[in-house]
Predict the structure.
Amino acid sequence: MNTPVITTLCYIEDDGRYLMIHKNKKENDINAGKWLGLGGHKKEGETAARCLMREVKEEAGITLLSLNFRGIVHFVSPSDEEYMFIYVSDNFDGTPRLECDEGEIKWIPKSDIETLNLWEGDKIFLSILESSNQFFNLTLTYDDKGNLISSHDKQELYQDKHCISKHSDKIASCGKRALIVTGRNSAKRNGSLDDVIKALDEHGITYTVFNEVEENPSVETIMKGRDAGVNADADFVIGIGGGSPMDAAKAIALMLKNRGRGIDYLYENGNPSDALPVVCVPTTCGTGSEATAVSVLTRRSLGLKGSIPYKIMPEYGFSNIKYLRATDMQIIRNTAIDAFSHLVESYINSKATELSRAIAIEGFHKFRYVKEALLSKYTPNDDTLNNLLTMSTLAGMAIAIDGTGLPHALSYHLTLEGNIPHGPAVGYFIPGYLNAAGSLADLIFDVIKISDAEDLKELFMRLYHFERIDKDMIMRSINDVAGNQAKLDTAPFYAGKHLLKDMADFMC
Ligand SMILES: [Fe+2]
């Protein structure tokens, strides 16, 4: 299959109508005869938003004055793969022209859209756009004749106040007996556990709750969860909570599919889909684990924390600000630093791609709008909470492509020895990493509206009190990472012990 194509699409709204283009002019157009929103192919180095502004100007002659990024649709066909960034806008300048070299352009009342010749998949995301105003991500698989087909190899993420009840049929499609994996209390307190149980009851799915997942889940906890799942004969797993329960859910799903195996199996290299189906319900805004195939576990007997080699991608993820609202403000700050760090480490990474950078840029746009609210002692408003959740998911999607980099590698001693929460432990190295990146970081600072690494450091100092960090512990981290060439190679510039030390010293 070719390198994935990245495209943009916008539904421009005015007075209950969408501006649509009827593709009827170009020869050999894959969309010939179909009606679509406006947009087109992203050029290399262009952000998705800039691409869309350019395409809309070229096609309809109007200037979009604001854009609302709504989601990403991953199209898969036997010969091609495409990631489409979807936006809506009701704010533009000018009067649309009624035709361009690709086809006829027309305002269509929303109630008439269904009567047009649309791709089957477009109907699905148009209905999501109408029923919610929050982020979504889905995979649509077509056969070689252009028919939409169902595929097991998919991921669907929904963010909405009622997303679990709205999509309960999707949870039901995963199995008949669920193992719910969560922490001790928070899922009960914030209502997420109740929402999941209600959805399961509605479809007659039995369930068992395993609520013993600790922060930085250990392999012993995974085996205990596996035993609970075996006793319940679970055929799918639902992880509810922050990164720890979701990562644990993935590893337990792996061990449930491979019931006869011991702890060491977690560290063998195996089949990527060698696990029971996993559903994730994130209740914090940092890890993005619902969008990644990564499971980070702790092996206390060896003093190790890190990703297991298996890649276990959740089939569904459901985010809801209701769960986040019940979270302590400092935890929101800590997890937001983690999400921002994922965006930075994905964007400034030797493995970064056009796609991972395009996703990260959308995440940076969200950070721009949440950064001030994070400093408040009060719980943010709904818009900010939604932006935080979307940022976290986008950050997860970005690192799912190219992985984390030096700041995460340097953080593990700070978490395991220093008991510093994961987000701040990583964030400690982020301003220094951006400083080391030089002009590679220019676009990030431009998007987040922070002038430079010094200003970001100041913001981070206000988000978390870093001064208690032990310098010897930092040195142990530096020595470890300096000896790990694979980690050093994640930086898109020369990285050695001196650079790692500079990154750490930047926060002093
Ligand atoms: Fe992280």
In short: The mean pLDDT is 93. The first strand starts at residue 5 and ends at 14. The domain at 5-154 is CATH 3.90.79.10 (Nucleoside Triphosphate Pyrophosphohydrolase).
